[in-house]
Amino acid sequence: MHRNHSSLPAPGPAPDLPSLLARHGRDPHALVQILRELQALQGWLTRDALSQVAVTLGLTLAQVEGVAGFYRFFHTRPVGAYRVLFSDNVTDRMLGSEALMADLCRRLGVAPGRLGDEGLVSVDKTSCTGLCDQGPALLINHHQVVTRLDAARVAEMATLIRARVPVPHWPAPWFEVQDNIRRADVLLGEAAAPGAALAAALARGPDAMLAEIKLSKLRGRGGAGFATGLKWELCRQSPGVEHVVVCNADEGEPGTFKDRVLLSRRADAVFEGMTIAAHLLGARRGLVYLRGEYRYLLEPLRAVLQRRREENLLGTRILGREGFDFDIALHVGAGAYVCGEESALIESLEGKRGTPRIRPPFPVTHGYLGHPTIVNNVETFCAATPIALQGGAWWAAIGTAKSTGTKIHSVSGDCERPGLYEYPFGTRIGRILEDCGARDTQAVQVGGPSGVCLSAFEFGRRIAFEDVPTAGAFMVFDRSRDMFEVARGFAHFFAHESCGFCTPCRVGTALVVKGLDKLAAGHGSRHDIDVLFELDKLMHTTTHCGLGASACNPLRDTILKFRPAYEQHLKSLHFEPGFDLDAELSIARRMTGRDDAGAHLENRT
User: Fold this and answer.
1) Is the dihedral of CA 21, 251, 45, 105 positive or negative?
2) Tell me, what's the pLDDT at 3?
3) Does residue 115 contact residue 80 with C-beta atoms inside 8 Å?
């Protein structure tokens, strides 16, 4: 029998809560950080503590509880002294994570997602932890990662947990995170001396430096590919007493881990790129939004920032330039894929639920706390550094005319050498497969679940915004894999990560999961596959943000290119289904006001 959570004694507010609140200046915009640190103090967020936070910050209890309930790494019920979260990306499952998790649960006598009888441990799944090149992986207490799991490590882990051995005293090799840089180019190659690029930018002056960024044709590396120079120019032209520079390090797209390596190996280049942007904008404040799964990078990044302050590369009068005052603060997320969307990220930075904003206005005019704000990806800021050193024409000469420079790929899955591969834009998919040691490949998921799934006849296509755009993920599947199951796993991911703000996404992602689960159970028909096509059409045209619009991408691609994988799950005998997908879709159409959602995908391809 599992212990009833409500029967556990609820601790009162943490004794250090007043000093914690004072350290954050009793600022309601720091709510997410306050809750994260409070939970670290007492294990979970009690109602008494949330009430005290609300009173001190001048918020309602409903507002504070609403934020606490939005992020999956916050807990308003006990979760045990050991909170074990297995990474549930498809690549972890391919390496046996599900069997390893079941083994740990059996050894500890706990059910997945439930608190053990002694209140000691809970074991559950979480989304991709950004360690696909060294999985299976897991998180302990949202703070520490364990890589390269196997049966022996799981058995020893169970023993350590039962003996209540503190996590820092577990075997050190378990926590080793490798960079696995397999092919380096201008970003992952030899690093420039800290400050060199910034000095070059200062020598040019803000106008000339902006001209170099525009000349380079650098496009955002987070997936959308918006012109970086234009974004910076629009922000610079926006009136406002303060401009803000934000680095999006919320690398939540399953299969992506390039930013993790850049932050551990090239943090100076990232921070330098932010400082160059601040020089162009006249910004004094910089913020890095670090995904919650990368909490273990927080102290090393703080150390780099402090060193840069001591070297006069951050702070006041940077490099002796009067009036050039700029500093960077680190903000740690709490587990929400949707916060990778720039307006949702800004909402989270402001201490709120990570719900994407209605746009316009755009962040370049009304961003963080209403100030003109640029939000760029880690890799984008990193690229600004060599551009400052070498010039825009040098960068523009790399890659293709519309996709300049290089792109870093996070390669994982069925290949001999997973890791990071940096190539000029325009590189063939087949070249990457050859270099990583992929064999008998049937499919590659480029750009993560929200990207595109390519079949073998497309491996001659090239990585470029004009052909195959990508945010960096490159997941390889050989012919032993069931592409239906791959798509079903991605569908569960999107349904779990939907923020619930808009009906088409909230209802649509749930209907996709139900439809695919129906097929997986052998209860589906070809008509159900056609209805799934209709859901794709509905969600592409009605959702509030990009999550819902891209949620059906894996479904659409795999049905079109790997339809036999779906048909092998079709029922062979008549039965009375317990779930009518067609009826549910009709309800969804009424709820969203879309009467034309029945048009098939073929009508637009």
Assistant:
1) negative
2) 36
3) yes
pLDDT of residue 16: 86
Q: Are residues 231 and 362 in the same domain?
A: yes
Residue 553 placed within a domain: yes
Average pLDDT over residues 152-164: 97
- One domain for residues 306 and 195: yes
Distant-in-sequence, close-in-space partners of 246: CB < 8 Å, separation ≥ 6: 286, 287, 288, 289, 342, 345, 346, 349, 363, 367, 368, 373, 374, 375, 376
Beta bridge partners of 265: none
Inter-CA distances, 222 with 256, 259, 406, 448, 472, Å: 11, 10, 13, 12, 8
Longest dimension (CA), the chain: 79
Q: Say if residues 188 and 422 touch (Cβ distance below 8 Å).
A: yes
Q: Are 368 and 244 in contact (CB under 8 A)?
A: yes
What span, in angstroms and rounded, lies between the C-alpha atoms of 458 and 446?
Answer: 12
What CATH code is carried by the domain that includes residue 551?
1.20.1440.230
More confident residue, 519 or 379: 379
Contact 270, 263 (CB under 8 A): yes
What pLDDT, on the 0 to 100 scale, is given for residue 33? 97
Distance CA 305, CA 317 (A): 16
300 and 216 share one domain = yes
The number of folded domains in the chain is: 5
What are 463's strand-pairing partners? 468
DSSP per residue, 440-462: SEEEEEESSTTSEEEEGGGTT-B
Whether residue 91 lies inside any domain: the answer is yes
Looking at residue 445, which CATH number applies to its domain? 3.10.20.600
In a domain, 75, yes or no: no
Q: Are 486 and 558 in contact (CB under 8 A)?
A: yes
Residue 502 placed within a domain: yes
Distance, in Å, from the CA atom of 72 to the CA atom of 139, rounded to the nearest integer, reads 13
The beta strand positions in 112-176, using DSSP E, are 121-126, 138-140, 144-146
Domain hosting 146: range is: 82-178
The CA distance from 422 to 410, in Å, is: 9
Please report which helix (H) or strand (E) contains residue 529, including its range. helix 526-542
CB 211 within 8 A of CB 388: no
541 and 571 belong to one structural domain = yes
Give the separation between CA 600 and CA 605, rounded to whole angstroms: 10
Q: Are residues 61 and 11 in the same domain?
A: yes
User: Of 21-25, 58-62, 552-556, which gets the smallest average pLDDT?
Assistant: 552-556
Give pLDDT, residue 432. Answer: 98
